[in-house]
Design goal:
single chain, about 350 residues, mainly alpha, two-stranded antiparallel sheet, elongated
């Protein structure tokens, strides 16, 4: 959606899910896996050093990877073939030793989420600070509370702003906990670690340390970790959607309890200023709510690995993350210069 991305997209977050970013994370996993296996005595230290040296300058054949993905349903088999070709004998067989495609894919996702979550946290903190500034500057302005779309009782702008700000604190705490809990996936072909010759625990611990992620028992058929991240993203867009809905209603003709800068124009009615940013927040919130329902289907993960559920995650999680970035961008722009209520 090249044009729509300017409205509903986020280039910085989209880049985290671009092919190059995914390949870089996968290669990082393979280098760290070799180092971890050398530490555990599973492969020779010379092999780990050779793998690290060769893969540091690895350049993938993206066309071959795309063809491999279409053939195998996952990019890793062809990537491992290319990685092994880049490593000299006798060490190339040590690349990806004991691991399976899911170990690489899931851990590479965790690495990118370790960049995504702090980015979202930083934008969320900026938005929270802006709400505090508005409360300090406009908090004593008079405003009519609305319940069930009807005028209720008078209160202040500060009280209104609290309804937007308070949930953001909970979202920030949730994201911080998720960031600390991002964990490697390493279970081998059937998820029990048996492919690591009795050294799975040692390899896991070393791999987690090398990658800066948490250690964890294999979770390949338990997709709760993915759903937890997605739910946190959907909650952020949901809160911002409520903020947008409120602002759109407050900007209605005849209500006029907010002044927004940079509102959108109409192709047919020059007098109109449409609350575009507020409307987009509502749309993004509804989009992520719908995507969350779709992503929940990936919990139905048959037996020890599901190709269908796994593919669904790849399709759904990236646009959910991008929607959060877009929502935070629009919310910041909306509140910049917004004036709510009437001075006392």
């Amino acid at each position: 959606m090249p044009l729509l991305s300017s409205l509903a997209g986020d280039a910085e977050i989209a880049a985290l899910f671009a092919p190059q970013a995914e390949i870089e994370a996968l290669v990082r996993f393979e280098i760290a896996l070799a180092d971890a296996e050398a530490e555990a005595g599973l492969i020779e230290r010379d092999a780990a050093a050779a793998i690290a040296t060769a893969l540091a300058s690895f350049r993938p054949d993206l066309a071959a990877l795309a063809a491999g993905l279409a053939r195998d349903g996952v990019v890793v088999p062809d990537l491992v073939r290319q990685l092994r070709e880049a490593v000299d004998e006798p060490h190339r067989a040590r690349v990806h030793l004991g691991a399976t495609s899911q170990d690489a894919i899931d851990t590479a996702l965790m690495l990118r989420l370790a960049t995504l979550i702090p980015l979202v946290e930083a934008r969320l903190a900026g938005l929270r600070a802006r709400l505090d500034e508005m409360s300090a500057d406009q908090g004593d302005h008079a405003l009519m509370a609305q319940t069930r779309m009807q005028a209720a009782l008078p209160f202040t702008v500060a009280a209104k702003l609290r309804t937007w700000a308070s949930p953001l604190d909970g979202h920030a705490a949730r994201l911080a906990a998720l960031r600390e809990g991002l964990a490697i996936q390493l279970g081998g072909p059937i998820g029990d670690g048996s492919s690591f010759g009795g050294k799975a625990g040692a390899v896991r611990a070393a791999l987690a340390r090398h990658l800066g992620l948490a250690d964890a028992e294999p979770w390949q058929s338990d997709r709760t970790r993915i759903l937890d991240v997605a739910q946190a993203l959907a909650l952020v867009t949901g809160t911002l959607g409520k903020l947008g809905q409120d602002l759109a209603l407050m900007a209605q003709t005849g209500i006029g309890t907010v002044t927004l800068t940079g509102s959108g124009g109409s192709s047919a009615m020059a007098h109109k200023q449409n609350p575009v940013g507020a409307e987009v927040l509502v749309a993004l919130a509804r989009f992520n709510a719908g995507m969350m329902g779709t992503l929940h289907q990936s919990m139905i993960h048959e037996n020890e690995r599901s190709g269908a559920a796994w593919t669904l995650e790849w399709m759904v999680l990236p646009p959910m993350a991008e929607a959060v970035g877009a929502a935070l961008r629009h919310a910041a722009a909306l509140l910049d210069g917004a004036v709510i209520g009437c001075p006392a």
